[in-house]
Specification:
Elements (H helix, E strand, L loop, with lengths): L4 E7 L5 H11 L1 E8 L2 E9 H8 L9 E5 L4 E11 L6 E8 L6 E10 L5 H5 L3 E4 L3 E6 L8 E4 L8 E3 L23 E6 L2 H15 L1
Parallel strand pairs: 1-4, 2-6, 7-10
Antiparallel strand pairs: 1-3, 2-3, 4-5, 5-6, 7-9, 8-12, 11-12
Length: 210
């Protein structure tokens, strides 16, 4: 993985909603928590500026993050939950899950769709790409965690679709939902006809009949 994310964190002893509001208002800090990995949960604070900047990169949400503690220690973690302000561009709280390199993790990663404009259904048939899903939840060891998964739709024709089971997954990566049965094999992308395409087809049919 080419990108690395490091965040400096401080332990937090003053808990509660009032304390969290003071942290945000007076020090521009974000309260958070680190849990899992066979260790006790630890309440932390981190710079709003630093985590806000990290969140601008989609890879941050599907990446092992190094949390550097004030005592020099480091936790390897993934972001599990992020609470945002409903009206302002502010992060209110962050939950981090510690990872162990020999333990499987479950992470939601983004999907990158390739060859949309040159796909058969768009270029040849005049259709429109419909993204049903923009991300997928995967399970893998931390070392196998991809930043994103590519889905090539070059050969997708009008009316066709790609399901989760059609995704070419990297080595060591699985989609847990597929183990729940065929009903969980969701469509992730399809190509459907536009109004112009439908009208053009109707016009051609009418001329042929005439």
């Amino acid at each position: 993985m080419a990108v690395e994310f490091e965040l400096n964190v401080q332990p937090r002893a003053d808990l509660g909603k009032g304390a969290s509001r003071r942290l945000r208002r007076l020090n521009d800090l974000v309260p958070g928590i680190i849990y899992g990995g066979g260790q006790d949960p630890v309440a932390i604070t981190l710079s709003h500026k630093d985590i806000h900047r990290a969140c601008e990169n989609e890879a941050f949400f599907a990446h092992i993050i190094k949390l550097k503690n004030a005592d020099g220690g480091t936790d390897s973690a993934i972001i599990k939950a992020l609470q945002r302000h409903p009206a302002k561009d502010r992060i209110m709280h962050a939950d981090f899950l510690r990872v162990q390199m020999d333990h499987e993790i479950t992470v939601e990663v983004p999907l990158h769709f390739l060859n949309e404009e040159s796909s058969l259904g768009v270029k040849r048939d005049g259709g429109m790409v419909s993204h049903v899903m923009s991300s997928v939840t995967i399970a893998c060891l931390p070392a196998d965690l991809p930043e994103f998964i590519e889905v090539d739709i070059a050969n997708l024709a009008l009316g066709d679709s790609i399901h989760m089971s059609d995704i070419v997954l990297p080595k060591g990566v699985a989609i847990p939902e597929l183990a729940l049965g065929e009903d969980h094999n969701q469509v992730i992308v399809s190509i459907h006809a536009t109004r112009a395409t439908i009208e053009a087809g109707s016009s051609e049919g009418g001329e042929g009949a005439a």
